[in-house]
Design a protein that fits this description.
The complex is a heterodimer of chains A (555) and B (175).
Chain A lengths: L1 E3 H11 L4 E4 L6 H7 L5 E4 L3 H15 L3 E5 L3 H4 L2 H9 L4 E7 L15 H5 L5 E4 L6 H13 L5 E7 H5 L1 E3 L19 H13 L3 E5 L2 H4 L3 H11 L3 E3 L14 E4 L6 H9 L2 E5 L5 H4 L10 E6 L13 E4 L2 H8 L9 H13 L12 H12 L4 E4 L3 H9 L8 E2 L10 H11 L5 E6 L3 H4 L3 H7 L3 E7 L4 H10 L15 H8 L3 E4 L2 H13 L4 E6 L24
Parallel strand pairs in A: 2-3, 2-4, 4-5, 5-7, 6-7, 9-10, 9-12, 10-11, 12-13, 13-14, 15-16, 15-17, 17-18, 18-20, 19-20
Antiparallel strand pairs in A: 1-8
Helix pairs in contact in A: 1-2, 1-7, 3-5, 3-18, 11-14, 12-15, 16-17, 16-23
Chain B lengths: L2 E9 L4 H11 L4 E8 L5 E9 L2 H13 L3 E6 L5 E12 L5 H10 L3 E5 L3 E8 L1 H11 L4 E6 L3 E4 L19
Antiparallel strand pairs in B: 1-3, 1-4, 2-3, 5-7, 5-8, 5-9, 6-7
The chains are: A alpha/beta (555), B alpha+beta (175).
Thiamine diphosphate binds next to α17 and α21 of chain A.
Chain lengths: 555, 175
């Protein structure tokens, strides 16, 4: 029996256990929506396609499953581009479906035609233009496999309208056939032995763990490993929540706005164990001053990351979870009390600090948020200073409880990603910490939130500014503040009211202390507008060209 | 900086050339020459890419190429014994009185005349890059009107081969 390609597509999605799709309809994708009409898959209608892709991304970050979104051709497809780039930079598994004009019209500049496979080539792990209807099932099978295996990433499938309406015999393939794609999972045994030996000899090891810990679900192994070798752990921004934030071995985040203790430990260590991290420029600072005394071990699933930025003494390609499991039995416990003493000293000497004054400080809000949730919430952020304060002052407890745009640093990610996170973890509190700038990029999704009945608590750290850029202008442009201060904001409480959301405005420590706990505890969503000073800086900060241990205080 | 010749087997899918060329462009790798064509099997094409760079760069190029799903196999031919060839066609200004002289010069390089115009001579020549360049330089004084090079193609010597392997046509392809 033959069925319509669009019906087959939806059946493929069901076979891949897709539970929710985020999307926005249009002409070219009409057949697919017609097929979704009969499906049990939940479709979440967003208010802008960027919202769909960020929501799918947030969903994927929380569940570890492939997030799925759909949009029509032309403007629908181009509205996805930012979100696809975001997922690509952070290695998030997504399958993106776009409608395309009919095959006979492709290449003729027809209505709502864009070459979305061309546009997204550099920001997808792979993409397909479905021309041959018989290839549909294999393409979907491959797409889910490619998105979720190896180093995860987004895969886009562009579906011309006429192809979607053709009929094919339906048989979902049981396995993938991709001769050019075979990720390595198992680490090379001789390298694993070599690493074990190096760890045995090291006096001052530091574990530098990135987002790979989360994508390979290796947090448990990382904890065992760190305790077994008595090495302190620092997380990259993407790695946060991969190691318990209150653990005595935890140094906090490293890099540009990292803790001084993490950055100092990096420059003092004699063995740097990089796990699922990519030596990003925001982590490394001046490369010639980074971890100068250290032998470098680099474990990553993506061979291209190894040796890309810094020379590595021991490279090891594979899945970090499997590798840690192979490594653990080879580890001998050795006494590193002297090094751990030094780490304790660094942590004692350089805690993160800020000045509490008469006005409400953003860091105080985050600390209070921690006290209210104790790590039992999913924290979503936008991009800017508020994001860094979350990274610094919220010691994440469980893996996948931070949802934030790292590599792309994409303002506007927060609210839609929170929708996805909230749908991914029903019953779990979801708190969005956003900025007054970021929220205004995608706040149309408040409508989606209400329509879906999602109880997201939105904390706006409102400094009436694009604070992070303002901070850059303070330090790099001698305080010439150009286009960073807002002279107009909507009344966020009134905005909340317009959507039927409880709204709050807090101006003092006392107000937040008295009301934040109940605002968070109340069922349903909330918009919590916290007025914070415009001139508060994220501190410490590593200036351009400096080593990370040379960070300045700018509080 | 050395030149490396990469023999890259790719799926014969539409857009694969764009994927490879785009990767080189956005990662800032320079392509010296690129020759593409089908292999003995219709589903696989071969790209012979000449890249200039140090060891670290070539390693990155190779690793990044490997990340493309459509790339099946990459071999740095230059690391082994190999033969390489390039085909050139060159149109030279030639007054009737100069023809013999020019044909004699071209003969040294075993270039063959493929076309004769009233005031031009067109040669074809295959050989290594060095030979082709030498031919070009020898003809330059007469005036080169047009020159087309295919880009280098290369193969390992002896029984070694850069190929996909497995039977072809695949049985499973008939399903
Ligand atoms: C889409 C996008 N545009 C511009 C930027 C540059 N940028 C980085 S942080 C920032 C300011 C963010 O302002 P806000 O959301 O209010 O956060 P704050 O820094 O004030 O906490 C800007 C403009 C960006 N990261 N993303
Ligand atoms: Mg702001």
């Amino acid at each position: 029996m033959e069925i319509k390609v669009a019906d087959a597509l939806v059946q493929c999605l069901e076979r891949e256990n897709v539970e929710v799709i985020f999307g926005y309809p249009g002409g070219a994708i009409l057949p697919v929506y017609d097929s979704l009409y009969h499906s049990k898959i939940r479709h979440v209608l967003v208010r802008h396609e960027q919202g769909a892709v960020h929501a799918a991304d947030g969903y994927a970050r929380v569940t570890g499953k492939v997030g799925v979104c759909v949009a029509t051709s032309g403007p629908g497809a181009t509205n996805l581009v930012t979100g696809i780039a975001n997922a690509y930079m952070d290695s998030i598994p997504l399958v993106i479906l776009t409608g395309q004009v009919s095959t006979s019209q492709i290449g003729t500049d027809s209505f709502q035609e864009v070459d979305i496979t061309g546009i997204t080539m550099p920001i997808t792990k792979h993409n397909y233009l479905l021309k041959d209807p018989l290839k549909l099932t294999a393409i979907i099978k491959n797409a889910f496999h490619i998105a979720s295996s190896g180093r995860p990433g987004p895969v886009l499938i562009d579906i011309p309208r006429d192809v979607a309406n053709m009929t094919i015999p339906f048989k979902y393939p049981s396995n993938v056939r991709l001769r050019g794609y075979k990720p390595t999972y198992k680490g090379h045994p001789s390298k694993i032995k070599e690493i074990a030996a190096l760890i045995g000899k090291a006096k001052r090891p530091v574990i530098y763990a990135g987002g790979g810990i989360l994508s390979s679900n290796a947090s448990g192994e990382l904890l065992q490993f760190a305790e077994a070798i008595s090495a302190p752990v620092t997380n990259t921004f993407m790695g946060l929540s991969g190691f318990p934030g209150e653990h005595p071995l935890f140094l906090g985040m490293l890099g540009l706005h990292g803790t001084r203790s993490a950055n100092m430990a990096i420059s003092e260590c004699d063995l740097l164990i990089g796990l699922g991290a990519r030596f990003d420029d925001r982590v490394v600072g001046n490369i010639n001053k980074f971890a100068q005394q250290a032998t470098v071990i680099h474990v990553d699933i993506d061979p291209a990351e190894i040796g890309k930025i810094i020379p590595t003494n021991v490279p090891l390609v594979g899945d970090v979870k499997q590798i840690l499991n192979s490594l653990l039995p080879l580890i001998e416990k050795i006494d590193r009390s002297k090094w751990l003493e030094r780490i304790g000293e660094l942590k004692g000497q350089y805690p993160l600090t800020y000045c509490r004054g008469e006005v409400l400080k953003p860091q105080f809000v985050i600390e209070l948020l921690w006290n209210c949730t104790k790590g039992e919430a999913i924290i979503v952020t936008d991009v800017g200073q508020h994001q860094m304060w979350v990274a610094q002052y919220y010691p994440f407890k469980h893996p996948r409880t931070l949802v934030s745009s790292g590599g792309l640093g994409c303002m506007g990610f927060g609210l839609p990603a929170a929708l996805g996170a909230s749908l991914a973890a029903p019953g779990k509190p979801v708190v969005l910490v956003t900025g007054d700038g970021s929220i205004q990029m995608t706040m149309q999704e408040l409508g989606t939130m209400m329509e879906q009945g999602l109880a997201i608590k939105i904390i706006i750290l409102n400094n009436y500014a694009l604070g992070m850029v303002r901070q850059l202008q303070e330090f790099y442009c001698e305080g010439r503040y150009m286009s960073v201060n807002f002279k107009f904001h909507p009344d966020f409480e009134m905005l909340a009211k317009a959507y039927g959301i409880p709204g709050y405005t807090f101006r003092t420590e006392e107000e937040v202390m008295n009301h934040l706990p109940e605002a968070l505890a109340k069922p349903g969503p909330a918009i919590i507008n916290c007025i914070v000073p415009v001139d508060e800086n994220v501190s410490p900060m590593v200036m351009a060209g400096q080593g990370i241990h040379e960070a300045i205080d700018c509080g | 900086m050395e030149k490396h010749t990469l023999s890259v087997l790719v799926e014969n899918n539409p857009g694969v050339l764009t994927r490879v060329a785009g990767l080189f462009a956005r990662r800032g790798f320079n392509i010296d020459s690129l020759a593409v064509g089908r292999t003995d099997r219709s589903d696989v094409s071969r790209m012979t890419i000449v890249v200039e760079g140090d060891k670290a760069l070539i390693e990155q190029v190779t690793k990044q190429l490997h990340k493309l799903i459509d790339v099946i196999k990459i071999s740095n031919i230059t690391e082994d014994e190999y033969v390489d060839r390039e085909l050139v066609m060159v149109k030279v200004a030639a007054e009737p009185s100069q023809r013999v002289e020019i044909i004699n010069i071209a003969g040294i390089f075993r270039a063959r005349v493929v076309d004769l115009g009233r005031k031009t001579l067109t040669f074809e020549c295959t050989g290594t890059e060095g030979k082709i360049t030498a031919l070009e330089e020898s003809l330059r004084p007469y005036g080169i009107k047009e020159l087309v090079r295919t880009g280098k193609i290369a193969m390992l010597r002896g029984s070694k081969a850069v190929s996909v392997g497995g039977p072809w046509p695949r049985e499973s392809d008939e399903e």
